[in-house]
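Figure S7 source data.
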Amino acid sequence: MRLAGKICARCRNFIPDDPPTPGERLCAKCRSPEIHRIYMYYMYRTDWMCQFLEEDLKTPLPRRFHFQSPEKIRAIVEKVGNFADLQDRQALDYGLETGRGGVWLQLTEEQYKHLKTVR
Ligand SMILES: [Zn+2]
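Tokens for the predicted zinc ion complex:
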């Protein structure tokens, strides 16, 4: 239930919206309004590319990143990953091994704005 996004990861209350987006998340009471929940999708081609989606998993954010090293992706997840959950960590290890994956991130208003802006 918690991992399916149906109950709050902190207070365990049911989250009433429909349809629920997958992954751990917080209810309206527990989440602060300035925190944005976004999904980071990463893939290895000639380098590691990271793309970001809004919580609806449909709307892409304009900013993309390219990294030579997967450790940069790990560093992002360490910083803004979803509760640093063990399962998230294992999924990340697996994704970096196989060359693609995705992870939920919690961003502050400032970090979120940064992704909305293309340099
Ligand atoms: Zn809650």
